[in-house]
Amino acid sequence: MSDVSTPWWRDPRVRPVIGACVTLGFAVGVFAVSFGVSAVSAGASVLQACTMSLLVFTGASQFSAVSVIGSGGSASAAFGGAAVLAARNGVYGLAMAPHLTGRLGTRLIAAQLTIDESTAMSAAQDDEHHRRIAFWITGLSVYVFWNVGTLIGALLGTAIDPETFGLDAAFPCGFVAILWPLLRQRRPAMAAAVGAVVCLALIPFVPVGVPILCATVGILVGVPAETAPNEAVVA
Amino acid sequence: MSWTFVLVLSATAYAFKVLGLVVVGDRTLPPVLDRCLALIPAALVAAIVVKDTFSAGQHLHLDERALGVGVAMVAAWRKLPLIVVIVLGAATTALVRALT
Asked: Which residues of A170-194 are buried (b: 16+ CB within 10 A; e: fewer)?
């Protein structure tokens, strides 16, 4: 435990958490450069690309929107796909709400930062204090790096192929690293297995984005009581 | 790309984000819901990993990414730092892609 005079960010148990959160933000920022490039080549202005990153701020939706428009799709098709991908942040909100109590204003800001990275990084921590810190530091660092990266990409505008550098694999690799500690416990491991299988099974049959929403059924492994089955009857 | 599109998508994305936080809000949930909601990140993040590794759009697709993610799994198991896991995974993918 740190004493009162030590600020929380100096706490030796908190420092590695902050380091990992900022690192993740930086990695996501590299990806944002390729979003900036894709957006401008799909016909968005630099200002529009940056506005999307500031306001939409959910990478999968943004990439999907510019790729549909860039390949000549209608605005409504682009919107539909992007909205389905954005819906999972609503599910993350359900998971994060118990950890993001406080003033309404604070929660409205937290909402904008409720994305894959902040939720995953928060879930990987094992105490309440660290969960909040991980959510906020990851959310804010991704926000800063994502927007700086978008601006750089939009200004560069020249196509760099992210696949040449294996950047398309960087996201799943980062999430593997974040998810791994969670899988040491039985329930999260089962939820992850169900989520992964459901998603994989649905990919060929339903529109992009829907399989991830359907993976939410994995949480049903949490329904049975954790300890003795007769406990609920006694209570 | 029209400004209407940008702003409507912004509003929609934010509405989804707020929705989850507001629906649960400050209220105390029954233990069964608490247990289930706590499993959301594990279920969804695992889904994102398999989606990003094994699919291209609406098709299942096995390519160099699977090797990169395999290397990342070993690195995560060895408890290497996050940035090392990401760099090893991306570099493996890039290398195999360059060689094949």
From this structure: bbbbbbbbbbbebbeeebbbbbbbb
